[in-house]
Amino acid sequence: MATSTVENYIKRIFMDQPTGTGLMPLGRLAKIMNVVPGTATTMVKTLSESGLARYRPREGVRLTPAGEKLALHVLRRHRLIELFLVRVLGVDWSEVHPEAEELEHAISDKLLARIDELLGKPAFDPHGDPIPSAAGKLSRSRVQPLIACNAGARMRIARITDQDSRFLRYANSHGLVPGAKLHLKDRDAQGDSILVQVNGRKPLNLGSSAGAKIMVEPHAKARTKRAT
Amino acid sequence: MATSTVENYIKRIFMDQPTGTGLMPLGRLAKIMNVVPGTATTMVKTLSESGLARYRPREGVRLTPAGEKLALHVLRRHRLIELFLVRVLGVDWSEVHPEAEELEHAISDKLLARIDELLGKPAFDPHGDPIPSAAGKLSRSRVQPLIACNAGARMRIARITDQDSRFLRYANSHGLVPGAKLHLKDRDAQGDSILVQVNGRKPLNLGSSAGAKIMVEPHAKARTKRAT
DNA sequence: GTTTGTATTTTGAATACTCAAAATGAAAAT
DNA sequence: ATTTTCATTTTGAGTATTCAAAATACAAAC
After folding, report:
1. Which one of A33, A193, B125, B223 is separated from A17 by 20 to 30 angstroms, measured CA to CA?
2. What is each CA distance from A146 to A24, A143, A162, A168, in whole angstroms?
3. Are the Cβ atoms of B108 and A99 closer than 8 angstroms?
4. Domain end among B94, B123, B140
5. Sorting pLDDT into bands at 50, 70 and 90, what band is A164?
6. Is any atom of nucleic acid chain D found less than 7 Å from the CB of residue B37?
7. For position A16, which CATH number holds?
8. Residue A21 — very low, low, confident or very high, per pLDDT cuts 50/70/90?
9. How far is B121 from chain A (nearest CA, A)?
10. Torsion angle defined by CA atoms of residues A2, A6, A9 and A12, in that order, rounded to the nearest 10 degrees
11. Per the structure, how many domains does chain B have?
12. Alpha-carbon distances, residue A215 vs A94, A160, A201, B50, B91 (angstroms)
């Protein structure tokens, strides 16, 4: 059985490496995990020995198929729990992340299945992130960061990538929530900012770092069943 | 912050020692915790150093007020979670214990408060055990084991003390659930068995070990001698 | 091609928990 | 009073995780 520490390492390696080809350098992993570099090295060796990752010294890590399977399992637990907390317990979506971070390691598969059913086998969590299926399939849609869009684009918010609750609260208060329709009215390359209009609201200026955290997708297209 | 291991030790010490005066011998604690005796000794020293217990070498342990406070807090989490799983998620009450055993260490106070409200600040868990209040008060009622009752007694089941799910399932299937009315029709000291009738059902024979696990309480205002 | 700089790895040590087995204390049996 | 027995404690060691700081490798700059 993987400890919750191992589960966390595996999860973060997976999340920070959507492009399957590259290795993740250990310095980066150490930053993500808030440990000193040496700790990351030690841990990655252990992961490697237990067959969850492949490790090239001085280059980086990559998950093995077994590692990816575990990562998807943890991610499923995390996102299903988040949605459960929002929908059943009425917790605000901006506060749900740290809670799920703990519970994801404590919940049994049996209980998770019950929650899944109760929620109607949902496909997305409250942040708009896709929930891996029980079989371990993750639907990847074509989303992009808001800053990557052209002026004039009309999109829909798919999710907010930042898990920091301050930013989530800010986003929330301006209507920047998954599902919201959004019109990119203008871009200012020099001023490093973009002007957006959310639903019918007052236009809002966002810096590029904020714009990078907001993932959008074309909203004309037919969509799969939505969470929330 | 107490680790979940510490929380478990404290909880079990508390539960196995309702009579405040006696010390719990470490051999007993070791059995309860499924560790070798030496481990219990080491752990109890640690608890003692952190002010949660008082330890007399060769005699035993007792919780300090701080330890009792923690124990009640853990117990509250455990029992509230059990009730939540039964009521909101429809998990069978006989299967709820091991689940809560894990979740009780992962849930935040904030989330617990939400659950408490959702359930209407309940006083008893699905096994009939009282749920400590947020302030740490535990209502102790006058309950006693079924085998301690006289023939002819009419009682109500308060709770089942055994947490083993096989026994719980057995009890369930015979209507032996908290709240059920019960008539002790006969006792057979030689045969070591008692004959009970649950609600209107067929009379049922129980051995003394089963009878010891079923806690009952006076059903009307009739006063029997109290057990605490 | 040597120096400098930065990322990574190694080493040594700490904390929390556990076990196996030897040592000890105290009560029970003789 | 001495021996036997049993519970408890001590000792030594192992796993999982972490840090601080020294050692090393490699790329970039000179």
Report:
1. A193
2. 25, 9, 13, 16
3. yes
4. B140
5. confident
6. yes
7. 1.10.10.10
8. low
9. 15
10. 30
11. 3
12. 16, 6, 19, 48, 37
* Domain end point (choices B124, B140, B156): B140
Residues A38 and A79 in one domain: no
- By the 8 A CB rule, do B41 and B28 touch? no
Determine, yes or no, domain membership for A113.
yes
pLDDT of residue A20: 59
Give the pairing type, strands B214-218 and B181-188: unpaired
Taking 70 as the pLDDT cut, the residues of chain B under it are 18-21, 142, 220-228
Q: Determine contact, residues B178/B160, Cβ cutoff 8 Å.
A: yes
Domain span holding position B55: 4-63
3-state helix, strand, coil in chain B (%, to 5): 40, 20, 40
Span CA (B24) to C1' (D6), Å? 17
> How far in angstroms lies nucleotide D23's C1' from the CA of residue B54?
47
- A-B CB pairs within 8 A amount to 39
